[in-house]
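Changelog-adjacent note: as of this version, every example in the card shows the full chain rather than a window. The one below runs 369 residues end to end.
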Amino acid sequence: LSATSSGLCCSCCCSNASFSLPSSAEVLISNSSCGENPSESILTIGFRKGYSLTFAFARNVTRYQVKAMKFTYNLSDTEIFPNASSKDIKVEESVSDIEADIDKKYRCVSAMQIQMQDVIITFHDTTIQAYLSNSTFSKEETRCKQDEPSPTTAPPSPLPPLVPTNPSVFRYNMTGDNGTCLLASMALQLNISYLHKDNTTVTRVLNINPNETLFDGSCSAQLVTLSLRNQNQKGNVLVLQFGMNASSSVYFLQGIQLNMTLPDARDPTFRAVNSSLRVLQTTIGNSYKCSTEEHIPVTKEFSLNVFSIWVQAFKVEGDRFGSVEECVQDGNNMLIPIAVGGALAGLVLIVLIAYLIGRKRSHAGYQTI
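Full-length structure tokens:
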């Protein structure tokens, strides 16, 4: 909430002051009331010395509204009005168009201004509800007219999340005391869902840009770790952990962890961890390769897309990929043209047989002498 006051205007001059509702503002219980009439209520917010903002609510059977607003400010406050010649307590009043359905919250993301005589009050990202059936905001809402589309344009349809182009492929390698423990050529993409500051759910798709990424990790007998860090955004880290099962001679991607900051989220610190995966499974000594995009669910809020992956962990000889084990998806892609070709060959054979049968029947009956 911000307000602009003209302070004191005269015939030759007019000074302005702008200030915001401070975080120390509080409800003045003595000046607020649910009212003797159940349909009328008053909420007064006080701040600084001699400042207050009052909302007068009214309702009928179906709707409620802020029928009036009153703003009181103190011209003797030299910090805000250093040049005011008057030291009076000023009071401004105005009606408002804030109204909503009963049992719904009033929601206005757009800036909304209330014009008084010498004061303009601007609301930003506003949520109000009166006559609540319980102590929390309702899930349903009535939106302000400022948030509605212009009447000259058609209402926009909900847009899908912006999906960037496929990420760039990059080659990663990790080396330990016993030589190379990981070779990986792949492109990575993050799918993240989170609660926005306005309480709406947002889904973002982010590419891992190799040009902005630093990588390191570790090698051990049972675990190989690859950590990718965004050099421009401190604290943004993606960790991939490869484990193995020596008894069955296989290795696999067993853990994914993501830590990052989302400035527009209700909780800016985003963290997702899953250490019980078993994907990209391959025989130890061989490499895993998949040209088809793979989608790896990590948590309810986070999943990882992997493109054009070729990876080998643990037993890597000569810094080269071992024998290739292709993913099932690539194998299925090969079956499609084979199946189509087989179907076409079968169709040609059926047409040929039908033609030969028809030709044979055309010679039946008496022969010409």
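Structural remarks: DSSP finds one helix and 26 strands in the chain.
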